[in-house]
Write a structure and sequence with these properties.
It is built from 15 helices and 21 strands. The strands form 5 sheets. Strands 11-10-9-5-2-1-13-12 form an 8-stranded parallel beta sheet. It has a 5-stranded antiparallel beta sheet with strand order 14-15-16-21-18. A 3-stranded antiparallel beta sheet has the order 6-8-7, with no helix packed on it. It starts with 12 loop residues before the first strand and ends with a strand. Helix 8 runs parallel beside helix 9.
Length: 543
């Protein structure tokens, strides 16, 4: 049973669903809300506490729902409001909370607000978006760049001004310095709270405000992977983003948002933070009880899977977090699937299990992306099969996000059980069919069973959910730490390399506990933890 109470989110496991690719109930080749409702028993069987639905709002789908044209309605390809209400009802019957994406930083250029705003310089919504004059020579107002490539400014011939877009030029940025904009967006949040949602995942939560002086960003001295758009093939990563995002004014807005959610006990927020100082920003946004409940960063969505990196990331956030709370994920709809990204491009079930146990044993809440529990690798697509504008712009060095968004394989027939359509919006990956749900359910040693078993095991150990963490050892392959909550104290060993061992402090007496099946389990004897290749050990520290 999922964790209940107003703090259910603390240590919760949230299953991210990308509705377009999860389950198609009507045969049009696109997943929908009824499809999610149909598969609720499967979701419940995993042992997760909540689902996070990527956007299903009315949209022209230039960025597949992250370009919203109506914040308070369901796009017809996903169904209608009644289908969403039914989804909420079924989820709650299964003791599953429902979190939805809120894309507040920008709207679609098809939103009525923007259509009015761009119509003239003196209409009621003239300053609802970020407009700026051209420089004297007609060039863009400053050097800010779009994550999707090129300047973050687009010329509008009607107003004879530029508007800001941190992403596609069809995604104009809203002007959060205008209180009417903030009021309207919070009204849309209230709309969904009234319909019974349990929380919100805030897309690009640190992008809401911009520098009113439009100062140029300075160059970045070192390009380090680990944030939105940061890679050598994208000029966005060459700037230190001091003025176009992560502005101090953001704190006041987050406080207003939190005050609204506090009117609906038991609701929560998880903010996506992608910036040059993501762990610091996570701490700022979650400290105390008056801002976001939790945040996640891109720090575990990089290609660095060493335990040295994991330890450094966790230690950094722990040092600055104070009363805040983190949320961690290894995969989502924007990055290469972890089974490929952390396994040199190929699926490795043993490693997928070990990384899963590590993620679910760290301090914080967890987001799992659909298919992660199957160990799905990144799907290989040709350029002709791409639909993601990000990938189309940067091909072939960056292949975009379509490879992690292909349809979910429910069975191993040619269509994978996703849709009856001959031409789904993205092709079913042949590499995913042998890893389909029906195949793995029949294999007691599958990645799917390992996830289910560990998720249920975790519910019986409060130290893994809410406990304090102390790191004892790390190198590139091995990570050892303790988790302590009230009367329970556990020692956890993770090994992603060849056989290794760790000698615990002499004061530690450890007793074995029954571990989930499907994992390769280490041993503990005479103060020494022995970890075979790709193995996990969890033992109880005896007081």
């Amino acid at each position: 049973m999922s964790k209940q109470g107003s703090d259910w989110w603390r240590g919760a496991v949230i299953y991210q669903i990308y509705p377009r690719s999860f389950m198609d109930s009507n045969g049009d080749g696109i997943g929908d809300l009824k499809g999610v409702t149909e598969k609720m028993p499967y979701i419940a069987s995993l042992g997760v506490d909540a689902i996070w639905l990527s956007p299903f709002f009315t949209s022209p789908m230039k960025d597949f729902g992250y370009d919203v044209s109506d914040y308070c309605d369901v796009d017809p390809i996903f169904g209608q409001l009644e289908d969403f209400d039914e989804l909420i009802e079924h989820a709650h019957k299964h003791n599953i909370k429902v979190i939805i994406d809120q894309v507040l930083n920008h709207s679609s250029d098809q939103h009525p607000w923007f259509k009015e705003s761009r119509s003239s310089r003196d209409n009621d919504k003239a300053d609802w978006y970020v407009w700026a004059e051209a420089k004297a020579d007609g060039t863009v107002p400053n050097n800010w760049l779009s994550v999707f490539g090129g300047p973050a400014w687009h010329w509008d011939s009607r107003r004879r001004q530029y508007y800001l877009h941190n992403f596609l030029d069809s995604q104009p940025d809203l002007n959060f310095h205008n209180p009417d904009v903030v009021d309207a967006l919070l009204d849309s949040v209230r709309f969904w709270l009234e319909r019974g949602v349990d929380g919100f995942r805030l897309d690009t939560a640190n992008y809401f405000f911009h520098d009113l002086e439009l100062r140029d960003n300075p160059p970045k001295q070192e390009i380090v992977e680990g944030s939105i758009g940061v890679s050598l093939d994208n000029p966005y990563g060459y700037q230190l983003h001091l003025y176009d995002k992560s502005r101090p004014e953001n704190i006041a807005f987050l406080k207003r948002l939190r005050a609204l959610l506090d009117e609906y006990p038991g609701t929560t927020t998880v903010g996506e933070v992608g910036c040059d100082f993501s762990l610091k920003t996570m701490a700022e946004y979650t400290q105390g009880t008056d801002k976001l409940h939790m945040c996640y960063s891109f720090d575990l969505l990089t290609h660095d899977s060493t335990m040295t990196h994991i330890h450094k990331t966790m230690s950094t956030i722990e040092e600055g977090l104070g009363t805040g709370w983190p949320c961690w994920s290894m995969s989502n709809h924007d990055v290469e699937r972890v089974a490929s990204r952390w396994n040199h491009g190929k699926a490795n079930p043993a490693k997928s299990k070990v990384f899963m146990a590590m993620l679910l044993s760290l301090r914080g809440s967890v987001c799992l992306y659909q298919g992660e529990e199957l160990g799905l690798p990144e799907a290989e697509l040709t350029f002709e099969q791409l639909v993601d504008p990000f990938g189309i712009n940067f091909w072939p060095e960056f292949k975009g996000r379509d490879g992690c968004r292909t349809p979910f394989p429910w069975n191993n027939d040619i269509k994978g059980g996703f849709s009856t359509s001959e031409n789904p919006w993205l092709p079913m990956s042949d590499a995913h069919l042998p890893l389909a749900v029906t195949v793995q359910q029949g294999d007691r040693h599958s990645v799917l069973h390992a996830y289910r078993d560990f998720l249920h095991f975790r519910k019986h150990h409060p130290a893994l959910i809410e406990g304090e963490i102390e790191f004892l050892f790390s190198d590139d392959d091995v990570l050892v730490f303790t988790r302590t909550h009230k009367e329970e104290s556990l020692i956890v060993g993770i090994n992603t390399g060849e056989q290794a061992h760790f000698t615990a402090p002499l004061s530690y007496e450890v007793s074995n506990i029954v571990m989930p099946e499907g994992l390769k389990i280490g041993e503990y004897e005479n103060h020494k933890m022995i970890l075979p290749a790709n193995s996990v050990y969890i033992g109880k520290i005896v007081p």
